[in-house]
Amino acid sequence: MVMKIAAVFLSLILILSNNQYAFSNDQDSAFDKARFYRAMESLNRDKVDKELSHLKDLDFPNKGAYVGALSMLKASFPASPATKLNLFKSGHKQLEAAIRKDSLNAEYRFLRLMIQENAPGMLHYKNDLGKDSDYIRKSFKSLPDVVQQAVLNYSRKSKILKPVDS
Q: What is the rounded distance in angstroms from the CA atom of residue 57 to the CA atom of residue 68?
């Protein structure tokens, strides 16, 4: 009888420890906006690739906005013009689809503004700079703290979105 109770107790401990491990893995694999924005700000190929790979494994609403922005940023790294263009087009489709789905999302418009401001002119992807900048300024206080910090960090080097705008 004591052996049976010990076996049940041991099984219970193993089940609970496995569940705890599963929960911690879920938390580790959750979308981390701070990490995303660090990758965007870094302009580092390895960090961008790592974050892009991580995001592709996650499932959350409108992840296309984030994957799209990172893909367009990643387009600045390859040497091949064809690879650059393909990455940019793919990311463009994803980001613009997310914005069409939720046009009042200031964060997605901030992502677009960052890409548009830095995209080469030959891509003709600069049409929304003014209206996105205005919308971000108007919506700044309603953005999550992490996104507000990213906007402030970006505005220090932006020609469109100045720190005084925020």
A: 14
- Which phi and psi angles does 77 have, rounded to 5°? -90, -45
Q: The whole model's pTM is what?
A: 0.80
Name the nearest CA neighbour of 146 among 49, 28, 50, 37.
37
Nearest to 70 by CA among 106, 32, 126, 111: 111
Whether residue 73 has pLDDT greater than 70: yes
Chain CA centroid to CA 145, Å: 15
Q: How far apart are the C-alpha atoms of 114 and 70, rounded to whole Å?
A: 11
CB atoms within 10 A of CB 49: 14
Give how far the C-alpha of residue 40 lies from the chain's centroid of Cα atoms, to the nearest Å. 8
pLDDT tens across 96-105, in order? 999 999 999 9
Domain limits of the chain?
Answer: 1-30, 31-165
| Residue 68 DSSP SS3 | helix
C-alpha dihedral sign at 51, 69, 91, 57 = positive
| C-alpha radius of gyration, the chain, whole number | 21
The number of beta carbons lying within 10 Å of the beta carbon of residue 55 is 21
